[in-house]
Write a structure and sequence with these properties.
alpha+beta; 7-stranded antiparallel β-sheet; two-stranded antiparallel ribbon
Length: 135
């Protein structure tokens, strides 16, 4: 379960400067198959991968996480390496982020709010206020 303590563990483990600049995110859910069954349809989705997204003045780091929100080795991009970057603001719970660097083309969802985790909303407000979503 995502908690503020899991965020603090990540900060300590990788010694990243923290100033409300980390938010959780995940891959976009993709449908693997759909089974029409009369008036009810069944669908199977690919497994979504979760991340901590770290925004700084010089770079973005994407920390993959396990099912228990333990952070792994980050994938890092300097702003100079990024060819395309935009965040489309979602209406309710998520924003969509597109990042292209070299041959890597990522589309991720950024959580705007998470139940029992007010720091997620606070961090999103901070990131918007300093225009990290508009680099």
């Amino acid at each position: 379960m995502l908690t503020y303590e899991k965020l603090q563990d990540l900060i300590r483990k990788y010694d990243v400067p923290y100033n409300h600049n980390i938010v959780p995110g995940h891959t976009k859910a993709k449908i693997k198959w759909i089974l029409p069954a009369g008036i009810i349809n069944a669908a199977a989705f690919e497994r979504a991968e979760s991340f901590f997204l770290y925004f700084a003045e010089d770079r973005i780091a994407i920390f993959p996480v396990t099912g228990d929100w333990e952070g792994g080795e980050p994938l890092e991009f300097t702003w100079d390496e990024i060819q395309e970057f935009n965040v489309n603001k979602g209406f309710l719970a998520e924003n969509e982020m597109h990042l292209k660097a070299g041959k890597l083309d990522l589309e991720l969802k950024i959580s705007k709010r998470v139940v029992n985790n007010p720091w997620v909303k606070e961090n999103n407000i901070f990131l918007e206020s300093v225009n990290y979503y508009c680099k």
